[in-house]
Amino acid sequence: MARSKKAATQGSNKRRDEPWQLQTAKARFSELFRRARTEGPQVVTRQGKEQVVVLPAEDYAKLIQRVRQPKSLVRFFAESPLTRVKLDFSRDIDTGREIDL
User: Fold this and answer.
1) Mean pLDDT for the chain overall
2) Residue 28: C-alpha distances to residues 8, 23, 101 (Å)
3) d(CA 4, CA 13)
């Protein structure tokens, strides 16, 4: 048991919004993992700059979820909810108009 009592309790003093230094994140990965699951995304820094964010898989899935886009305009109209609407495209025959010359 080389870790001192002070070192063991330092993790609990860490503020929620305080980023993790890379070496600390590696040494205490289980705590980083737990906090990402319970407290939200955790920022990891390297050389004082934010480099990565550890977040729950559910949050990541929401971020990368794409709005489903059709592959073509024809498919877009075919999948439209308006395809079930009956439209009347008939019209009167246009006989033109009379003009005075």
Assistant:
1) 83
2) 10, 9, 93
3) 15
Please tell me the distance from the alpha carbon of residue 22 to that of residue 45, in angstroms, as a whole number.
6
Mean pLDDT of 21-41: 96
Q: Nearest 5°: phi and psi at 35?
A: -65, -35
Residue type, position 30, single letter:
S
Question: Which stretches of the chain are assigned E, i.e. beta strand?
Answer: 20-21, 42-46, 49-54
Instruction: Provide the pLDDT for residue 3.
Output: 47
* 8 A C-beta contact, residue 35 and residue 42: yes
CA 46, 49, 55, 59 dihedral sign is negative
Residue pLDDT, tens place only, 39-74: 999 999 999 999 999 999 999 888 877 656 657 888
User: How far is Cα 42 from Cα 28, in angstroms, rounded to an integer?
Assistant: 13
Check if the beta carbon of residue 54 is closer than 8 Å to that of residue 38: no
pLDDT exceeds cutoff 60 at 12: no
